[in-house]
Amino acid sequence: MASDRSTWTDLLDQACSGEGLGVAYQPIVDTVRGTVVGYEALIRFPGFDEKSPEVWFSVARAEGRAAELEAAALRIALKARAMLPTNCFLTVNVSPDLLALEEIRRIWRAQGDLSGLVIELTEQVPIDSYGHLESDLNRLRAAGALIAVDDAGAGYAGLRHLLSLRPSIIKIDRDLIRDVDSDEAKRALIEMLGTFANRVDAWILAEGIETAEELETVAALGVPLVQGYYLAKPSAPWASIPLETAHRLAARDRSDHGHAVRHLVEPAFTVSSVAAAADALAADARLQFVVLLADDRRPVRILDPFSAAHGWTAPGLRLNLDTPIAAALARAVTRPQEHRFEPVAVTDNAGRFAGIVRMERLITALASSGSSASA
After folding, report:
1. What are phi and psi of 237, to 5 degrees?
2. pLDDT digits (tens, 9 = 90+) for 68-79
3. What is the pTM of this model?
4. Cis amide linkage into residue 56, ω under 30° from 0
């Protein structure tokens, strides 16, 4: 990495001219249909020793050349726009404090019609007010562009700024998505953002999906758009997602409008013996429990570290995917007091393990449905 200012000046001269720059495109997926509906353009620096975009944009900002570098990145990213697959949009990133500068405005004028383009305002520099950007945002919308905000729930993209910007797409940051399958508070916040988005006619996009469990959870929460390494990494135009993942998303059952436990199910770590359960729990402190399965994939017992260490395998409560939430909770609370708040195993119609439901999710879902009914 270059360290002296004169060297960085030469490198920035090259990069701002477009020399040594590249771009990767990461698919954005519709969770209802299981299809790719857009791509995010991500700038890369293959022609330089320093590869980190964060380092490059940080240095450019320190040297007063942030607008030059962002303009070069936009020109490179937009070159492939004409080849974009049918019915897909393209997302490009812009620092909000640079949006009104002439270097950036020239990019949009050169493009003309901005239909199918999503301009994502990133969090490079905190912005206290967007009033001075209103005219630029209005021009972009009039030309056909959609506006997105990055890192919802963090930094400048708080609720106050969401109200000011009225974006068409609200991106949920990886920090909120990480381990969402086991964090009730994160799920509650995503549901709140989803309600807000529906009221202002916007879409939620969950980025940073890295596990099957995270994908299933955000899809069950009704998040319409997702992207992340689990689906596809940034690459040359135009990557697809694995067929198995696409089919699983498209096949999700949404027929009962959220009244059955299937909408609360989350994956769990499974084992075929008590010894394997004890080993898994000892090896990973993040595991709170594992599910012991029989050879036919029927759940035998949900084991925590204590029960696994003592070899307890007494059958636990099992529910069908279509069990109503109220009935599931009524059955769960009849368990002995020492097991009353343990997760519940859920099976399909053939009795095979489908996942688990935590008691806090049953309680929250029932309370929510009760509040809706009385409103």
Report:
1. -65, 145
2. 999 999 999 999
3. 0.72
4. no
